[in-house]
Every structure is written in C-alpha cells, then in structure tokens.
Amino acid sequence: MKLLVNFSRGKGRKPIIAQVVRDTGVLINVERALIDSSEGEALIEVPDEQCKLVRDSMANLGANVRILEHGIHHDESECIDCGACISVCPREVFTFDEEWKLNVEEEKCILCGKCIDACPHRALSLPL
Ligand code: SF4
Ligand code: SF4
Fold it and tell me: What b/e readout covers 83-110, taking b as 16+ CB neighbours within 10 angstroms?
C-alpha cells in the first residue's frame, strides 16, 4: 500500500521514516521523497497488513499521512495514443500494446507528475 507522508522537520527532530522503521520493524520502501531543512514529503510503500501500524506510528510523530489508493488517472476518452507520456515516466507505467493503444500500469506510479505536462491532450491527472 502506498502512503503519502508530509512532515515538518523542526530543529533537533529525528528522521521520521528511520524512526518508524526502528520502532515498528517494518521495512519501508521510499518511492519518492522531497525533503528540505524545514519540511518533507515522501511517498512510501509498505505491506498492506502493516499499513495501519506504520500510519499510526507516523501520525504519533506528528506526520500527516494519507493512503493513496490509486496512481495516475488516465482518461481514455481524451487519449490519442501519441506516446508522449512513455518517455518521460521514470517507472515505465506506460507502454503500447500490440495494437499501439496505450497501456497503463497504474500500480507502478509514484505520482511524480512528469507525464501530466507531457500529455498534449490533458488525458492524465493526479488522483489528489
Ligand atoms: S506521475 Fe510519474 S510515475 Fe506516475 S505515470 Fe506519471 S510520470 Fe509515471
Ligand atoms: S501523452 Fe496523453 S494523449 Fe499521448 S499517449 Fe499519453 S495519455 Fe495518451
């Protein structure tokens, strides 16, 4: 399960992800992270059965945690199968099938947003 975690990094605060890994023993896969000296946002993946444990642990440390049920949203009615999204995606979410129709493996998406600007037909959007 994917979780989007937002947290502030006040002076002296411990690294929240490392602390939750230590406290819970759950191995957390960090898919994407943007962290500066004052705040951070991380997209993490954890086993479904340990999601609540991780979410509660992070919330107890002051983080705002949201479960992400979906990856990129693809509007088939707008898509013209141009393929512009294929080359910009870092996770190979998009491929062509044997009939040159766009295939979307949403579960691979890390919600980086790079494909949205690349799409000339506004067929892609974030599920936020
Ligand atoms: S948001 Fe990023 S990872 Fe997801 S499909 Fe678009 S480019 Fe790929
Ligand atoms: S860039 Fe947009 S229109 Fe082109 S294949 Fe991807 S989703 Fe479809």
Answer: ebbbeebebebbeeeeeeebebeeeebb
Instruction: Give pLDDT tens digits for 71-91.
Output: 999 999 999 999 999 999 999
**pLDDT higher than threshold 80 for residue 128:** no
Residue with CA nearest ligand 2 atom 1: 119
Ligand nearest to the CA of 81: 2
Q: Where is the domain boundary, 19, 48, 68? A: 68
pTM for the predicted model, two decimal places: 0.79
- As a whole number of angstroms, the distance between CA 90 and CA 81 comes to 19
Same domain as 81, residue 117: yes
